[in-house]
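**Entry details**
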Amino acid sequence: MSVLKIENLAASYGPVTALRGVSIEVPEKSIVTLLGANGAGKSTTLKCISGVVRPSGGTIAWDGESIAGRSPNAITKRGIAQVPEGRRIFKDLTVTENLTMGAYTRKDTDAIEADREQVLDLFPRLKEREAQLGGSLSGGEQQMLAIGRGLMAAPRLLLLDEPSLGLAPIVVAQIFETLEQLNRERGIAILLVEQNMKMALRVSNYGYVMQLGQVMVSGASEELRDNSKVFESYMGAA
């Protein structure tokens, strides 16, 4: 069963068309990846889902209910949280304060505290740095904090935009291992935008390859690993 179903999604930035009839699905408790070169429309797709960008056409259904064009606040309350590209943590707030900001739509105080402890257990390095300012953390620690902040919204679907960007390989491996753990142990569905194709296809169940605002190829991740069209889509847009 798909918790998220997008059909014929279109979006523009002024006169520039960013998405042209994109259709994707995210089954419950799955990891789905969006692949493609810069400018393919991957990030715009996530922003349309999370309400940051208003689509100009098509449908976005969450549990069968239309959410296209709703506010980011309303979409977060429905169980969808986005971890943006570049982390965008609050650099002048502490680790604890950043995590608290992630729960801004919630009022269940006891559950919020329990989730905060779970995030710190998931990322022990953050637990060691609870009182430090976000801006003083390393790139990998900031990415952990960004993911932790997203988890504080208690999402059923986590939207991740380029989580490996600018990180050392050993840190990337740790991040992706954690994503697999979240999916396996908590059943959180993940829609992953990632340029690290090999890593993305290793952890995901299904993938879509985008080029110039369209889905060019889709299929099970293990099938896409050996599909020459995947590499052609990358090279064609590079």
Q: What stands out?
A: The longest strand covers residues 2-13. DSSP finds ten helices and ten strands in the chain.
